[in-house]
Structure formats: structure tokens, C-alpha cells
Design brief:
By secondary structure, the protein is mainly β. The protein has one helix at about 60-65; strands spanning about 5-15, 20-30, 30-45, 50-55. A four-stranded antiparallel β-sheet has the order 1-2-3-4.
């Protein structure tokens, strides 16, 4: 679906075993360059990620690819 995916961290917040990372995703979809804001939420236990949730702005994706 995406090519050349790169996540640019914008802000990182940690609290105990939880980490939140706001990011800007840069990629291409077909021949369209896209930039989508998003957020990763991680739970860490013994140095390993035990849970990951990824939120992103799907409406921005749809608009940038003329699907909205």
C-alpha cells in the first residue's frame, strides 16, 4: 500500500511502563507523496514492547489521495 515509509517522531512522552510517540508518517501511495500525522502507544515490560496501538489520521490520507 505504501512505499518508502518513514516515521518522523514529533514528541515522545513516557510514564512508568507506557510510552506515547506522536509522529508524522512520510510515504508514497502510487505516485502521490503523503504526510499523515499519527500516534503510537506502547506498553513495555522487561524491556520488550508487549502492546502497541497505532492511531493515524485516515481522513488526511483519503484527502491526499483524492478519495475523500
Amino acid at each position: 500500500m505504501f512505499e518508502g515509509v518513514r516515521y518522523e517522531p514529533v514528541e515522545t512522552i513516557t510514564e512508568e511502563n507506557r510510552v506515547a510517540v506522536a509522529y508524522m508518517l512520510h510515504a508514497t501511495h502510487g505516485d502521490v507523496a503523503i504526510q499523515i500525522p499519527g500516534m503510537f502507544r506502547f506498553t513495555v515490560c522487561d524491556g520488550l514492547i508487549t502492546r502497541r496501538v497505532d492511531y493515524f489520521d485516515s481522513l488526511t490520507f483519503l484527502r491526499q489521495t483524492d478519495q475523500a
